[in-house]
């Protein structure tokens, strides 16, 4: 196969447009035959072409036939000649992003095929094709083959998978789904000691791209005329971008500043490239992460950012099975940091898998979810395979104390008898998530979270109750704005309609919602006309479980549960369908019927270990607030170790701690050098023998609140710290929580003087 680049270029100038059934333009040669552009590689390990060909259809078939019949000395198929039916950009390595144009041939890899049926279909269509056996073809068993069908023109790489799928549909065959990517290469040759592969040629016409069956799920390339906007696809791409950005930031934070790796930067760049390749990141995303990591030190004079990017991309260009992954990364950063980096990389890949390439939920058949429709329904798709070489997954608890975490395929349930306190507890949890406040006054939340609460029982009471709960936490209701979204859904007649679930999904993605609360699930299903005795009662929960968020449903327990002393998941409904979808089950009951403010909270199911049973009391507080706190058997509020330690904190100590925190941030905001030692920052805040306790406390709380960050030697202010208001700093160092807004308290009066 000799290079004929100039001939390929001359044909491109003679192309004229035509349109296929999907309405996208394709190029058709004005000559009788479009040449086949090929990138030829000296084996699978090669990332740059050894030659670039532009062959006639007849010459292409002659080459394939000769390679299949001539025995080589190779014993590994990866050493055979391989070719990609495409034209790469000049000087580019093999990757989908670098494919400039797909050749006028459709290549199909068939792992199981009825050759007689294939022959009949090719003859019936009257198209030109060549078929040969694959290296693992068994003449007396499963037939495996490669099929190359001549096309009338080249096509855009964005349509590579679509064209192959369309040709396969016309031939009545099922191709290997992993061969849909534009940069796929195909081995051609005969291994040493193996029999000659069978080869059959079919003479006919070139298959026209306009003949291919339509595919509504195909995304048009940028040059297509006036594509119809796809809101769901756009939201999915935005979600993927957010996931990649967050994962990249997490990786850079885990690794630390680039200047700490003098002498090892390029090795780390290469290790990152291999890791990200194995995790499914694109080459461009890999390059962007490494570039962002090196940019802060590019002015030192001894740092070549693009060289580091080249090292990373060089590792990425290897085949996934040839990338070293964690091993190379651990040798540079250590196994602990390597595990964090791997988890961050894989989380972004999962987000990409779940949001890109699968149809929106409103495009699925009724009764199916986005996940059901993804991966073309293949239960053995690569994205569904559990990896035993990746780091052990860690459950991302949003509130570890109550075992609440997002789950793909599960929901959390708060359930109990009527008037047991389910709704108020759910409202309290939602408010705590939105305000980054401890749940039940005790259980920390992972971070401030955006919450969507769908109220199927009327939102007026929820509105009043949440406002009171916020005031009891010494917070103002306006602080919930854009963090807690409450929508009245009492008039929503059919929440199990796929279009309703599609709107919920779209809202969640557009507003970056972390937690979804449905109060109550029972009322929602009654709106749909489905009672708890039927398996269809779980249909809404199945849709919520596909959102890959923490979805909390508030549900009434069945009547039989009223006589049970031990809460059980099967108390949720007479049908076990809903219970099977519950990952965390929180049962709520009234231990004393005469005491309507006391509730007992029990864990009926948890992802790992269950939390211990507890009692909590709702109580009115000054200013019209509604407080909720864990109490002991005597009804007295209990305290954590931290609360006991802080119980005796004086107003003077809190004021001094706030003063030191303000001085630290003021110094970092106005200091031009950017990074400082911990000692320098503390000295600037006035650290001394008498104030050492306040300085250390302020330092710890600012770090915990992510106002400042760094490593053992160098520290700097974050964007949050740079833009934080005084009220944000007060809340972070514990000032507002203890001395904020109770006019009757002595500290408040002292502060007002």
Descriptive account of the structure:
- It is a single chain.
- By secondary structure, the protein is α+β, with helices and mostly antiparallel strands.
- The chain is built from 25 helices and 23 strands.
- 36% of the residues lie in helices and 16% in strands.
- The strands form 6 sheets. A 9-stranded mixed sheet has the order 15-14-16-17-13-18-19-20-21, sandwiched between helices.
- A hairpin with an 8-residue loop joins strand 19 and strand 20.
User: Helical element count?
Assistant: 25
Helix content: 25-40%
SS-based class: alpha+beta
Distance between the termini: 91 Å
Oligomer: single chain
The value of Rg in angstroms is 32 Å
- Sheet-strand content, in percent, reads 15-25%
Shape: globular
Sheet with the most strands: spatial strand order: 15-14-16-17-13-18-19-20-21
- The overall pLDDT average reads 76
Q: Which sheet architecture does the biggest sheet show?
A: 9 strands, mixed
Number of strands: 23
């Amino acid at each position: 196969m000799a290079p004929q680049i100039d001939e390929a270029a001359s044909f491109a100038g003679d192309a004229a447009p035509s349109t296929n059934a999907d309405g996208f333009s394709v190029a058709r040669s004005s000559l009788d035959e479009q040449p086949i552009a090929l990138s030829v590689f000296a084996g699978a390990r090669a990332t740059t072409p050894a030659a670039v060909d532009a062959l006639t259809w007849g010459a292409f078939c002659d080459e394939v036939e000769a390679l299949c019949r001539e025995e080589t000395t190779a014993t590994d198929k990866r050493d055979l000649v391989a070719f990609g039916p495409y034209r790469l950009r000049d000087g580019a390595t093999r990757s989908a992003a670098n494919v400039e144009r797909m050749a006028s041939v459709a290549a199909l890899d068939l792992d199981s095929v009825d050759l007689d049926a294939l022959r009949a279909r090719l003859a019936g269509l009257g198209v030109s094709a060549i078929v040969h056996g694959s290296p693992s073809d068994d003449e007396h068993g499963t037939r495996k083959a490669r099929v190359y069908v001549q096309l009338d023109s080249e096509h855009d790489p964005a349509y590579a998978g679509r064209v192959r799928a369309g040709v396969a549909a016309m031939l009545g065959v099922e191709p290997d789904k992993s061969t849909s990517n534009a940069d796929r290469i195909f081995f051609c040759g005969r291994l040493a000691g193996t029999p000659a592969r069978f080869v059959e040629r079919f003479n006919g016409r070139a298959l026209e791209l306009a003949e291919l069956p339509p595919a509504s799920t195909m995304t048009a390339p940028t040059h297509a005329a006036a594509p119809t906007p796809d809101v769901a696809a756009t939201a999915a791409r935005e979600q993927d971008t957010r996931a990649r950005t967050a994962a990249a930031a997490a990786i850079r934070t885990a690794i630390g500043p680039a200047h700490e790796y003098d002498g090892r930067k390029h090795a780390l760049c290469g290790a990152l490239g291999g890791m990200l390749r194995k995790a499914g990141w694109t080459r461009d995303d890999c390059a962007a992460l490494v570039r962002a990591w090196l940019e802060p030190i590019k002015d030192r004079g001894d740092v070549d950012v693009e060289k580091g990017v080249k090292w990373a991309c060089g590792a990425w260009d290897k085949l996934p099975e040839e990338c070293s992954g964690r091993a190379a990364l651990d040798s540079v950063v250590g196994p602990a940091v390597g595990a964090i980096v791997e988890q961050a990389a894989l989380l972004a890949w999962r987000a990409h898998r779940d949001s890109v390439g699968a149809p929106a939920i409103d495009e699925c058949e009724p009764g199916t979810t986005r996940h059901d429709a993804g991966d073309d329904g293949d239960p053995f798709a690569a994205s569904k395979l559990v990896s035993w070489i990746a780091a052990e997954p860690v459950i991302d608890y949003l509130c570890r104390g109550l075992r609440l975490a997002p789950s793909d395929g599960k929901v959390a349930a708060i359930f109990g008898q009527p008037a047991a306190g389910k709704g108020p507890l759910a409202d309290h949890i939602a408010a705590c998530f939105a305000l980054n406040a401890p749940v039940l006054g005790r259980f920390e939340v992972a971070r401030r979270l955006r919450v969507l609460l769908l109220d199927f029982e009327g939102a007026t009471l929820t509105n009043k109750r949440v406002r009171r709960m916020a005031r009891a936490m010494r917070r103002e209701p306006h602080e919930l704005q854009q963090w807690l979204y409450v929508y009245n859904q009492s008039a929503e007649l059919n929440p199990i309609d796929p279009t309703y679930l599609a709107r919920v999904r779209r809202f969640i993605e557009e507003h970056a919602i972390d937690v979804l609360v449905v109060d109550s699930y029972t009322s929602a299903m009654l709106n749909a006309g489905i009672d708890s005795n039927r398996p269809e009662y779980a249909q809404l929960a199945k849709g919520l479980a596909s959102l890959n968020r923490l979805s909390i449903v508030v549900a009434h327990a069945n009547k039989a549960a009223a006589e049970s002393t031990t809460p059980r998941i099967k108390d949720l409904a007479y049908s076990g369908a809903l219970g099977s979808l519950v990952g965390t089950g929180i049962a709520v009951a009234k231990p004393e019927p005469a005491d309507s403010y006391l509730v007992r909270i029990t864990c009926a199911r948890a992802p790992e270990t269950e939390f211990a049973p507890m009692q909590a009391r709702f109580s009115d507080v000054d200013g019209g607030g509604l407080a909720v706190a864990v109490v002991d058997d005597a009804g007295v509020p209990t305290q954590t170790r931290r609360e006991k330690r802080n119980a005796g904190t004086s107003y003077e100590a809190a004021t001094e701690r706030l003063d030191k925190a303000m001085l630290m941030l003021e110094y970092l905001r106005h200091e031009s050098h950017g990074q400082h030692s911990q000692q320098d920052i503390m000295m600037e805040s006035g650290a001394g023998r008498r104030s050492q306790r306040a300085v250390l406390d302020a330092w710890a709380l600012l770090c915990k609140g992510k106002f400042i960050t760094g490593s053992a030697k160098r520290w700097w202010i974050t964007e949050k710290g740079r833009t934080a208001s005084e009220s944000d700093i007060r809340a972070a160092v514990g000032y507002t929580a203890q001395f904020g807004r109770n006019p009757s308290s002595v500290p408040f009066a002292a502060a007002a003087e």
